[in-house]
Every structure is written in C-alpha cells, then in structure tokens.
Write a structure and sequence with these properties.
By secondary structure, the chain is an alpha+beta fold. About 25% of the residues lie in helices and about 30% in strands. The protein has 8 helices and 20 strands. Strands 1, 2, 3, 10, 11, 12, 13, 19 and 20 form a 9-stranded mixed sheet that branches. The two termini are about 30 Å apart.
C-alpha cells in the first residue's frame, strides 16, 4: 500500500504493509459544523459513512463553539451567498424539527457602518438583488429603537428582519445525533495520519492510528488544519486566533432577547459583532481579525488574556457603554481565512475523489446546514443546485 500524503507531525507511514481494511461509501474528516451535517445528509440517503475527528464530538478546539453564531440574509460579503442562505434557513428549520429542539432564533440583524461604506452598500446590494425586506436606519433611529446601541452621527444601519442566530454547539450535536441515528459511524479522537487515492479511480484509502479505511470519496472538512492535509492550501488557508467575550450589562433590559438584534458593526476601532444575552450570562461581542495572530493552529494560544479583553472593551466603550460591565467569560476559537475571505468548496483538481470544504474565513457556520447537503451531492457525484464558482480552488 502506498500513501501519498502524511499529515504534519504524524509518524512516517510504511510503504508496504498488510492491513485489515474497513470499507465505506464516504469518509468525512472533521466532524464539526460542516462535517456533522455532511455525515447526516449522506447517511439519510443510505450511504455508508465514516466520520472522523481528531478531537471530541463536539469540541472547543475549532471554529464553532461559543454558544451561538449569527445568521443573516442581507449578506454584505456578496449577493451570491443569498440563495445558499435561503436553503440554510430551510434546513436549520428541518434540523430543529427532527432534533426536537429550537436551534434558529430570529432577532433581526443590523449591518452598521459609515454611510456609503462597503458593509452598508454590500448589504443593500444583497437586499435589492434578492428582494429582501429591509429598512435603512440613521444612527439616531437605531439608538432610539434599540437603546443598547450608542451609534455616532454619520453611521447608518441596514435592518433585515430575518436575521438572528443559530445555537452552534447544539446544532452540531443535533446533526451528529441525526447522522448516527441514520446509520453513520462517528469516531472521536481519531485523526487521519495519511491517505492516497486507489488505482483506476476506485476511491481513497485512509490511515489513522486505529485502522485503515477505504471509501469512494473523502471529504476534508478539517477547518484550521486543512493545510496539513492539502499542502497547496497552506498559503491561502491561514488560521487566525479569535476571542469571544461575555460581559455583564449595566442595563440588562437593553440587551435581552427580543430587545436587541444581532449585528455587524464596522468602524475605525474595529469590525465588531454582537448578540443579545442568551444561553449563558452576559452580552456577547467579538472582533473580526481580533489581534491579528496567525499561524499553524497548534501554535496559537488557546487561553484568553488581558489583551483579548481590552480589544473587545474598545467596542463596548465606543458603541455599547451600557454593556461595559464585569467580564463573565472569554473563549478563543479559530478562523481560517482565504485572501478574498470566500469559502473553498471544491474537488482537488488532481484527485477528484477528494472534496475540500474549508476554510470559511470566520463567516461559514450559518451555511453549514446547506454546505453539508452540497458536500453530500458532490460525494455522490450529483450536481448541487447552486453556483459554486465563487468557492473554486482555481481562483487562487
């Protein structure tokens, strides 16, 4: 047996050795947001699926922990995301119905920035192109309607009523449970050490520290570790350390669910994102690109520190002073950014048996229900009903 790739840090693989091989239709590496959904969509179609994760299922080592993640239709990043978002909303509703647990919460969403800024113009472009209900509010109107905000003159906001958040950790649990109920085999603490394609297009052979497996297709959804498995992606899939913070509001009534929408706020002091109080104590705030700490995932610090808190408090002091109370929690997670901050969803050009679904540049979780369905289509050689040209590897 010949393995054409060894993951970074793994022991060297033998060139020829005899193993007992377990066979599946599809192997999914990384059972996080994308991987768990992929396992479920494949298993519900009758596919024999193996999902492998180097950590627990779920875990706090990747990109999707921290209680919840924003979902929004007025997508300033690019209007072509909106059809994918509509499908994601539908699938989140289906997931929560089957799981018997609410996962999607609609709060309304605000995209906030200086008048004429890319965030505002991009959000409006998506709303207009896809006929999304929306309002444009002045800073004074936002402050009056949602008194938790203190926006300065010259800022405006696009309010889209369908925005909200998904309970991200619970959503991964739901997808993993549904996948196993449908027959998928999920295994935690089993990292891939090597893989290669089989001759004559027969599929892929994967080795871990516990066994050897074969399948027709391999889906790599390993997040911040994707560069270990696809070396060509290392220069363009760069892990970045992020910190999320929860702070005790001085006026808690302004930040409760039903009184405060999710929001993205881009300003000279940073691009912050916010949630109403839900799930755990405190007002949650994050900062895109945080302290700019980038590098291999295993080298980035996981423990939050005073500099992390200070960076988040800049946003509180400037725009949410009534939330600038005691810190209640700080948690780190990883983004994995491409140069254009769009996703990668594609087959490897030289090995079409291998499908890559990462990185998502810090804004991918909301799409994971739909991306799981797309990856299942690709793994079964079906054509997904979406334009994926924005996510092709060839753009690099």
């Amino acid at each position: 047996m010949v393995f054409g790739h060894t993951a970074a840090g793994a022991r060297a693989l033998p060139i020829i050795e005899t193993y007992k091989v377990t066979k599946f239709d599809v192997i999914v590496a990384g059972v996080g947001a994308m991987g768990a959904q992929t396992c479920w969509h494949l298993a519900r179609r009758g596919q024999r699926v193996l999902g492998l994760d180097r950590y627990d299922i779920p875990n706090a080592m990747g990109s999707s922990h921290g209680v919840h993640r924003i979902i929004r239709l007025a997508y300033f990043e690019h209007p072509s995301y909106v059809p994918l978002l509509r499908r994601a909303y539908s699938l989140w509703r289906e997931t929560e119905q089957l799981a018997g647990e609410q996962l999607l919460y609609v709060t309304g969403s605000l995209d906030i920035g200086a008048e004429g800024s890319p965030v505002i113009e991009g959000s409006l472009a998506s709303c207009r192109q896809h006929a999304l209900a929306h309002e444009v509010l002045s800073a004074a109107e936002v402050n009056a309607r949602y008194p938790g905000y203190r926006l300065p003159d010259g800022f405006v906001a696009v309010l889209q009523p369908d925005g909200g958040f998904v309970a991200s950790e619970r959503a991964i649990v739901a997808a993993a449970t549904l996948a196993m109920d449908a027959g998928a085999v999920l295994r935690a603490r089993e990292a891939i050490e090597g893989f290669d394609t089989l001759p004559h297009g027969e599929g892929v052979r994967v080795r871990t520290d516990r066994g050897v497996y074969e399948a027709r297709r391999l889906v790599l959804s390993t997040g911040a570790w994707i560069g270990e498995y696809v070396p060509a992606l290392k220069p363009v899939a760069v892990p970045e350390r992020q910190t999320l913070g929860w702070f005790r509001p001085k006026r808690p009534e302004h930040f409760r669910l039903g009184r405060f929408p999710v929001s993205n706020l881009k300003s000279d002091v940073g691009h912050f994102y916010q949630f109403p109080v839900w799930g755990v104590p405190g007002f949650k705030i994050g900062l895109y690109h945080h302290l700019g700490e980038r590098g291999p995932a295993d080298t980035l610090a996981r423990e939050p520190n005073a500099a992390d808190e200070d960076a988040l408090r800049r946003g509180l002091k400037a725009f949410f002073p009534d939330a600038d109370g005691d810190v209640l929690a700080l948690r780190t997670c990883f983004f994995t950014n491409t140069p254009d901050e769009h996703f990668v969803i594609d087959r490897l050009p030289d090995r079409p048996e291998i499908i890559v679904a990462s990185p998502c540049s810090g804004h991918g979780f909301k799409f994971s229900s739909a991306i799981g369905e797309i990856l299942a289509d690709l793994a079964m050689d079906r054509t997904p009903p979406f334009d994926l040209s924005l996510f092709r590897l060839s753009r690099f």
